[in-house]
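Methods: example folding runs. The two proteins below were folded one after another, and each record is reproduced exactly as written to the output file, sequence line first and structure-token line second.
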Amino acid sequence: MESTKQSFQWPQKYDLFGVGVTATTYEEAVNIAIRAAQSRTPTTVTALAVHGLITARRENALKAQINSFEMVVPDGQPVRWALNKLYHTGLTDRVYGPELMIRLCKRASELGIGIYLYGSHKNIVEGLSENLRDRFPLLKVVGCEPSIFRPLTPAEDRDLVSRINKSEAGFVFFGLGCPLQEKFAYDHRDNIKSVQVCVGAAFDFHSGNKKMAPGWMQRSGFEWLYRFGQEPRRLWRRYLVTNSIFVMRFCLQFLRLKFSWA
């Protein structure tokens, strides 16, 4: 199976603070993920915004796991801006996890590729499944189950992997939150014969449980402020700490690259 993976031309990654982030577009990411799903090539994909990037940068084990993913797409505008500024990648848009999920589901419905949904609460994942079917009537949702919010026992883990593989899902979407979903995908990278896609908050957004930020806030990089306004008690520390570290790390890497090229 490793040789099959190597036969794919995965988009190039660039180092952001020790984490390899893929410089790609929606079209490129969707096309290569569809090819992997059709060939049942085990693949790991995640969409990292500032919080996920800084979390990975601070945890060596998590950083190594994420660096093994075939694609780590730039979920947040600041991550895209950093790629453009540091490496002149010329990206005109980010690859937002919730939007990537919708585009993959659209193509999957057209091509008859099944999807499996795993994570979040029962009402949310079931609402997500229903909304996706309403939006894409031909979409094959071949599995849908919530998280149990504790580590799986070895038997539970084997049963879950068996259910996913027997479903013949081309895509498995995880809504476990960062970094739990990335760790889960890494641990199952060789056992789950599907494209594993970590999309986090997409489960909340597409189930209707939470609202997405307005388009202008997404484009301008202020989506974090909108989400902070929705859940200030839960998110204030995340954004205060990780946004500050991101700015500091970006400045340091910019200066290092500038002087190394001088």
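Second run, written to the same file directly after the first:
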Amino acid sequence: MTAPVIGSEERIPAILRPGDPPVAALPVGFERQRVQPPAPFLVTKDDQIFVVVRNSAAGLIINVFGRIILLTGEVKPFTLTFTPASDRSGSVIVQQLPDGWLLNVMAAFSSIAIRRGQCFANVGIQRPGGSTTLLFGSLIREYLVRGAPPSWPEGPLLMPTDGAGFLRSITGTVPAAGAEITEVVPTGARWRLYGMRFSLTTAVAVANRLPNVVIDNGAAPTNGQFPANAVQAASLTVAYTGGQLGAVSIPAGADAIILLPAPIPLFAGWRWRTITANIQAADQYTAPTYLVEEWIEP
């Protein structure tokens, strides 16, 4: 029996009715030879798969898995494994490819637990050529997270600053006596500052101190200056909390507050710091603790 032709009098029923033959018995067949490969990327031995990872987690091991259909029809798996730097710089690994069609690629990690915003992977196809390298396509651009490894061709292509970042609770540096707090966004990072807490112990020298939280780009100009809600007298220790707070006044003897606007975005090299009116040489700030959301800077 010949296979039915679409549009002919003999048609395959759209819905099986009682008494109809099972699907396996219907006159439908599939080609077994000269089948087009189910993959859009035809690669040659001149092409490479590259992996660029920007990461802030120490001790991370990256694994990139994939499969390729060789010209012989054999499906060949491949794996790239390496340990990227943890300073958010770009760690790169490349591997030459054989002639064939790329089927799928997946990026994963092992050895430690990380959260979204700590490790961003960019996987693609390139071809070296003299003084330049030609980029032919991106396969994966996504953060690596446990339980959901990004893959191609299923996954989306994202920028490092897309979506949620990594929430970090940071303990800063204790400044010297008479010095201000200064906290700098590290190279390769982007922060969103939510709030901070620190204490100031004033010396016996008589003067009313007034701490301010200042935001700047690492130099000038100042992008914002936010004062405490009250001055601090000599010979006192007062804790300061900065953030989006509902209260603008506090009872006597309680902690002081510094009202900040909406969470503040900060680029690499930018900083938040204190400027204290009438600070004395023996005044002492503690190490600040503060909350940021962090991304890898593109």
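Comment on the second run: The domain at 166-296 is CATH 2.60.120 (Jelly Rolls).
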